[in-house]
Amino acid sequence: MGALDDDFQFVAASVERAARLQRRECRDVLDGGALRGLALARHLDLVYDAVEQRVVDRRAEYQLAPDDTVRADAILEMRQLVWDVRGFQSNLAWLAAAQQPPLDLGTTYFLEDAARALVASQVEVTVVSTEHTSYATSSDPWEPLISAWGGGIPAGEPTVVIVFIPRREERSGLLHPLIMHELGHAADSRHGLVDRIWQQAGQRKRFPKRFSAAVAEFAAATGAGIADANDHVTRRLRSWIAESLCDCVAVRHLGPTYLYSFLAEVAAGSMDEAGPKHPPPRQRIKLLLQNLDADRWTQVLTEADPRVDGWVRSLAAKNVDYSETDDFLTWAVDELRAVVRAETGRLLGTRVLAPDVAQLSEVTALIEAGIPPAQLRNGDAASRETIILACWQSALANAGGGPEALAVAPDAPELADLLPAALELSAVTAAWTAP
Predict the structure, then answer these.
(1) Structural domain of residue 55, as residue ranges?
(2) pTM surpassing 0.90?
(3) b/e per residue 42-81 (b: at least 16 CB within 10 A)
């Protein structure tokens, strides 16, 4: 056996050891009677199966290598795989988060219920508190690797959704509704929502011509070929459509709650910057208001806090000019607003939140009295969407109202325990009173 052969066997064994050590934590979850994170642990276990199978296959290929150049390439691949597998250890923190969720139990119940309705009846949501500066999500993140090197994810296995929240917001119950946007991404991954919107976009009268012009303009400005320019514009527009879709899912499911949360988290950091994957916040605010007005929330918004409502509408009313691709993208997202709205309507069905002023008033009175509103006078469980909205409105009022109150409302001390308790009790009441 030569030096190259020794190198290969050493590095291949190192890959197997890294996988074996990490697999122990998955097996501890699977064999330890855990109530949460089981699908996550099974998926990770399949990852290590796939990695080990890749090493087996590469060993067989190595034996048939025709020359030392091919053997050296195989060693380089194994060395990279060592670092890749060692990097998987960060995913083990997700298992720990599944066992001890960073969110309160009431919010956890609420998000799991929404995920079952929007993503799949069999879904496992794990919320991970991270150093990320904003919220993010990933659905079945290892499926490509498991399918490429292993046997794939078994049929009937729950969809695994990982939602990342900034560590600073672990206790910000009024901002946790932003996770509904992230569940929109999971729903798109599961149901191909952006694909359907994209197909409809191509059938609209003005879209194909404007799209072709944007591609040609980008190619001329950058020197890129038409095919590469087409790919670039397509990727960016699909990303923007996805963000618009997820905003629409969240605001139609939560009503003004999502607008308030979005403003507090996103609008403070930027307003007119067009991102590679995100429309400008000002445009997103305008679309959120359009959807709220179409769902008949206008009066509720105005009465809850006239200063906030007037300020937000003034933000949305300002016209901002963009150039080149950004100009086309902002036009396209506006052009597809009705298509996006219709798609979210089909996804949400009866879960589109309509104003219920009587219930909102009843829930608000209980909150202001410091009583968790679990059950209404008619015996029904208080809507959790209504509870969060009433808490937002109460926090705004207690902070003095207006944009400054919007910034500090998520830290309302009077809601620190009341909101989680209300969400949990409402979930329990709904389960007790279900037919």
Answers:
(1) 3-91
(2) yes
(3) bbbbbbbbbbbebbeebeeebeebeeeeebeebbebbbeb
